[in-house]
Specification:
The structure holds 2 protein chains of 2 kinds. By secondary structure, chain A is α/β, with parallel strands linked by helices. Chain A is built from 10 helices and 8 strands. Chain A has 2 domains: 171 residues, Rossmann fold; 112 residues, 3-Layer(aba) Sandwich (Rossmann fold). Chain A has a 4-stranded parallel sheet with strand order 2-1-3-4, with helices on both faces. A 4-stranded parallel sheet of chain A has the order 6-5-7-8, with helices on both faces. The radius of gyration of chain A is 21 Å and the shape is globular. The N and C termini of chain A lie far apart (77 Å). Chain B folds into 2 domains: 83 residues, no CATH class; 373 residues, Porin (Beta Barrel), CATH 2.40.160.10. The two termini of chain B are 55 Å apart. In chain B, strands 1-3-4-5-6-7-8-9-10-11-12-13-14-15-16-17 form a 16-stranded antiparallel β-barrel. Chain B is an alpha+beta fold. The chains are: A alpha/beta, B alpha+beta. At the A-B interface, helix 1, helix 3, helix 4 and helix 7 of A face helix 4, helix 5, strand 7, strand 8 and strand 9 of B.
C-alpha cells in the first residue's frame, strides 16, 4: 500500500500539471480563439468551443466542452449573457476552480468595450434581450483592439514567465491591426449611410463602426424566427425606406433573407461574422477584409 | 448635500448629449457652465470631475454632429461606465429564480386508477396521471453561489394537490481542485441518463416505462455525491453516491449509515463538429424494509404484500446528438436509449387481505423472494424545422425470472412483457416555452391496451435555464 500511494500521487500530479506545456486556453467562440493565437503564438494551446457555423447562443454543455474546461488555464468568453445557456454549466461541471468567474483564469471580453443596445425594458416578450447589451461585440475592430490590450495583460498575469513574449506579440499585432483598421475604414467609406436589413440583430457594432443604417430586422424580436407576417411588413417598409441589401451571419438560417432578397430584388449578403465563417476569413484580419469586401459587393 | 444637484446636472448633461447637435442646446451648455461656476466656490474637487464629464459630453456631441444618423446608438452608448459594471450571468439576481408552469389535458381509454405494470412490483409515482384537464407540478427553483466555496440550489414542486415537495435541495462545492466536486443534500441521483433531468426537461410527457418500473418514475434521495472529471480531452466522469435510500426501490429504515449507494461512469466526446455522444454505466444498491404493495393474488383478492431485502440495479445508457455543422437551430436529431437490469433478493410476505394482524381474517406467509428483471427504451427526436420537433419512443420490459418460493401457491409468476409505443410533436416558439401533443399505445397489462392522448404546455419564467446535454 505504502509503495502504491506515491505512485498514484505522481500519476495524479503528472496528469494535472501541464509541465513546460503551452498555456491551455478555452475560447468560447472562434474570434477569441483567433485573438489568443495572435497574442500567444506558440506559448498557448487554444481550444475553441464553438465553430463559425454554430450560433453561440444555442450550444449545449456537451461532454467535450466539460472535458476541455477541466484542464483549461484560461477561459475567454464574450460575456454579456452570450454564453449564459451553457458556459456556467460547463464551468460548474468541470470542477476547475481556476477558471471560475471572478478568477484571473476567467476573461470576459464584453467588460472592456462600450456596450450598445442596452435594453431599457427587460421583458422576454421583447425576445432574447440581454441585460448587459448586445453581445456581438466582435463586429467592430476597435473593440478587438481594446480586448487585445486587456487579453495581453491577462495572459501575462496568468503566465508571468512569458509576459515579455505576450507583450511583444501584442505590440506587433496592435500596430498591424491599427493600420488594417485605417485601410478598412478607407475602403468602406462608400458604405456610410447605406440602408440595410439585418436578419438577426447581430450587427449593431458593425453598423455603428461603418455607419450602416439598419432599417429593420427580419426577426420580429431578437431570437424569434422570422414570420411571414413580419416579413411582409418589412417588405412594405422598404418601399418607403429603400435598402441596398439584407445581411445575415454565416450560421443563420438562409431562408428568410433569401426569400426577402428575391421579393425585394436586393442582394442577400452572408457575412462571416467570426473567424472561419467564410473561406476568406481565416484569421481576424481576413474576417474584416472579407466583411468589408462583401458589403462593398452588396452596394454595387 | 450637493449630491442631488450634481446628479441632476450629470443627468442633464447625459440626456442632452444626443440632442446637443441642435443649436438650442448651446443655451443648455451655458447653463451648465454657470451652475458649475456657482458650485465651484463650495466644492473644488468635485467640480473637476463634473468638468471632465462635460468635456466628454461635448466630445460626444461632436460625434453626434459628425454622424447624425448614428444618434440613437450614441445615446445608448452614452453610459459606458454603467455598461462596464453591468453584472452578467445568473447572479444578476441573487439568487437566480426560475419558475416552471406546466399543465395538460389527457384522454385515456383505460381508467388510470387501475394502472399497473404487469409483473413488476409498483412503487413511487407511476401511471399516466389524471384524465381530463390537470395541472402538472409547478416548479420553483432558487440557486446561487453561497460564497466562494459553495453553491446552493433548491427546487420546490407544488403538486396539483396543493402540497409542496422539496424535490431537490443541495449544496455543492465550487472550489475543490483537480476536477473534484462534492454535492450534499437532496438530489436526483446521477445514475442513467434521464434520471438527473427534471420532468420539464423530458422530451415526452411521461417517464419511460423502465423508469416507472424500476424507480417509480425517478430516483432521488438525501445523501452525498462525489464526482471527479478526468483531465483528459475525452470526457470521463466518475461518481460515487451514498444516501438514505428512502425512496423506491428502497425504503427508509431508521438506521445509521447509508441505505443506498451508487457508482457512475460516463464517457463522452464529439465526432467531427456535427455529432456529440455520451455513454454511461451505473449501478445502484438500495435496501427495503417492509416495502408494501398491493397485488391481485391467484384467488382474485387484493393482497397486500411486503418485501424486505436488497435491490440492485445496473444501467447502461447512451445519447447521441447530431446537428448539421453542430448548429441545431434549423434541424437536429437526438437518439437516446437506456437499458436497466434489476435483481431483488430478500423475503416477501404475502397477506391475502392486508389485515394479517387481525387473527383469523387473513393468511400471511413469508418466504424467500428473488427476481431478475430488465427493461429498456429507445427514443429519437428530430427537429425538422425551426421550433418544430417530432419524436418517437419504444418501451419494453422483461419480467424475467421471479422466484416466489412457497408464495408461488398464492401469487402468479409473471409472463407478459409490457411495452409501449409513443409519438409526440412539439412546438417551441422560444427556449422558454413548449406546447406538446403526444399519443401513446400503452400495453402494460395483458388484457388492457390504453390509448393515450396528451396535450401539454411547459413554460419557464425567470433565470435562463441551462442547456444540459
Amino acid at each position: 500500500m505504502k509503495s502504491i500511494s506515491p505512485l498514484i500521487a505522481a500519476a495524479l500530479l503528472a496528469a494535472t500539471l501541464p509541465a513546460h506545456a503551452a498555456l491551455k486556453v478555452f475560447a468560447t467562440v472562434p474570434e477569441w480563439g483567433a485573438l489568443a493565437n495572435e497574442l500567444g503564438g506558440d506559448k498557448v494551446s487554444v481550444y475553441t468551443a464553438t465553430g463559425p457555423l454554430q450560433d453561440p447562443h444555442h450550444v449545449e454543455a456537451k461532454p467535450s466542452l466539460i472535458a476541455r474546461a477541466r484542464t483549461a488555464q484560461l477561459v475567454i468568453a464574450t460575456g454579456a449573457e452570450l454564453e449564459v445557456g451553457w458556459l456556467p454549466l460547463v464551468l460548474q461541471q468541470a470542477g476547475n476552480p481556476n477558471v471560475a468567474p471572478g478568477k484571473p483564469g476567467y476573461f470576459e471580453a464584453a467588460r472592456f468595450v462600450t456596450m450598445l443596445e442596452i435594453p431599457t425594458r427587460l421583458d422576454r416578450a421583447e425576445g432574447d434581450v440581454h441585460a448587459a447589451g448586445n453581445p456581438h461585440i466582435q463586429q467592430d475592430p476597435h473593440n478587438i483592439a481594446r480586448i487585445a490590450d486587456a487579453l495581453a495583460k491577462r495572459l501575462a498575469e496568468i503566465d508571468p514567465g512569458n509576459a515579455a513574449a505576450y507583450q511583444a506579440r501584442y505590440q506587433s499585432f496592435s500596430s498591424r491591426w491599427n493600420s488594417a483598421i485605417a485601410k478598412w475604414e478607407k475602403d468602406a467609406a462608400p458604405l456610410k449611410g447605406v440602408g440595410v436589413l439585418v436578419q438577426h440583430r447581430a450587427f449593431p457594432y458593425l453598423s455603428h463602426w461603418l455607419g450602416l443604417q439598419e432599417v429593420a430586422a427580419l426577426e420580429p424580436k431578437p431570437g424569434i424566427e422570422p414570420t411571414s407576417a413580419h416579413l411582409s411588413e418589412v417588405l412594405a417598409l422598404i418601399q418607403r425606406q429603400p435598402v441596398k441589401m439584407v445581411i445575415r451571419t454565416a450560421y443563420s438560417n438562409g431562408r428568410p433573407s433569401e426569400w426577402l432578397s428575391s421579393r425585394a430584388n436586393i442582394p442577400a449578403v452572408v457575412l462571416p461574422f467570426t473567424v472561419g465563417g467564410t473561406d476568406k476569413s481565416k484569421d481576424l484580419f481576413g474576417l474584416f477584409d472579407d466583411t468589408v469586401q462583401r458589403l462593398l459587393a452588396g452596394v454595387k | 448635500m450637493f449630491k442631488p444637484i450634481y446628479s441632476l446636472t450629470a443627468l442633464a448633461v447625459a440626456v442632452s448629449a444626443p440632442l446637443a447637435a441642435h443649436a438650442a442646446d448651446n443655451k443648455e451648455l451655458t447653463e451648465i457652465r454657470e451652475q458649475i461656476k456657482l458650485l465651484k466656490d463650495h466644492y473644488e474637487s468635485r467640480i473637476q470631475a463634473l468638468e471632465s464629464r462635460l468635456k466628454e459630453t461635448e466630445a460626444k456631441t461632436r460625434t453626434a454632429e459628425a454622424a447624425p444618423e448614428a444618434q440613437k446608438t450614441t445615446a445608448v452608448a452614452s453610459a459606458p461606465a454603467q455598461a462596464r459594471q453591468a453584472p452578467s450571468g445568473n447572479n444578476t439576481f441573487n439568487p437566480a429564480v426560475s419558475l416552471v408552469l406546466q399543465g395538460r389535458y389527457a384522454n385515456l381509454s383505460q381508467d388510470p386508477n387501475g394502472f399497473a405494470i404487469s409483473g413488476f412490483i409498483p412503487g413511487g409515482e407511476i401511471g399516466p396521471g389524471e384524465r381530463g384537464f390537470s395541472l402538472s407540478e409547478t416548479e420553483l427553483t432558487l440557486s446561487a453561489n453561497v460564497d466562494d466555496k459553495f453553491y446552493g440550489q433548491t427546487t420546490f414542486a407544488v403538486t396539483p394537490e396543493d402540497e409542496i415537495e422539496v424535490e431537490e435541495a443541495y449544496i455543492r462545492t465550487s472550489a475543490l481542485p483537480a476536477g473534484f466536486s462534492l454535492k450534499a443534500g437532496r438530489f436526483f441521483s446521477g445514475i442513467g441518463y434521464q434520471n438527473e433531468q427534471h420532468a420539464h426537461a423530458w422530451d415526452f410527457v411521461d417517464a419511460p416505462l423502465a423508469y416507472q418500473a424500476f424507480f417509480g418514475g425517478q430516483f432521488g434521495n438525501d445523501g452525498v455525491q462525489l464526482k471527479w472529471v478526468a483531465p483528459t480531452d475525452l470526457f470521463l466522469e466518475l461518481g460515487a453516491e451514498a444516501g438514505n435510500g428512502a425512496n423506491f426501490p428502497g425504503t427508509s429504515r431508521n438506521k445509521n449509515g447509508a441505505n443506498s449507494g451508487a457508482l457512475t461512469a460516463k464517457l463522452g466526446g464529439d465526432i467531427g463538429s456535427a455529432t456529440s455522444w455520451r455513454v454511461g454505466v451505473s449501478g445502484l444498491r438500495t435496501h427495503a424494509e417492509s416495502r408494501e404493495h398491493t397485488q391481485t393474488d391467484l384467488a382474485g383478492n387484493d393482497a397486500v404484500n411486503s418485501f424486505t431485502g436488497k435491490s440492485r440495479i445496473a444501467i447502461a445508457d447512451f445519447v447521441l446528438k447530431y446537428a448539421p455543422n453542430g448548429n441545431p437551430l434549423v434541424t437536429n436529431f437526438k437518439l437516446q436509449g437506456e437499458y436497466f437490469r434489476r435483481k431483488e433478493t430478500g423475503d416477501l410476505t404475502y397477506d391475502s387481505n392486508g389485515e394479517l394482524t387481525l387473527a383469523g381474517l387473513g393468511a400471511a406467509n413469508t418466504d424467500a423472494y428473488r427476481s431478475n428483471q430488465s427493461g429498456w427504451y429507445l427514443q429519437g427526436i428530430y427537429q425538422f424545422m425551426p421550433q418544430w420537433r417530432v419524436g418517437v419512443r419504444y418501451d419494453r420490459l422483461n419480467p424475467g425470472t421471479v422466484d416466489l418460493a412457497s408464495n408461488a401457491a398464492n401469487l402468479d409468476a409473471p409472463g407478459f412483457k409490457p411495452n409501449k409505443s409513443t409519438i409526440m410533436f412539439d412546438w417551441s416558439p422560444s427556449e422558454f416555452s413548449i406546447v406538446r401533443l403526444q399519443a401513446a399505445r400503452d400495453r402494460t397489462q395483458a388484457d388492457a391496451t390504453d390509448n393515450q392522448i396528451f396535450l401539454q404546455y411547459i413554460m419557464t419564467l425567470g433565470a435562463h435555464g441551462a442547456h444540459k446535454f
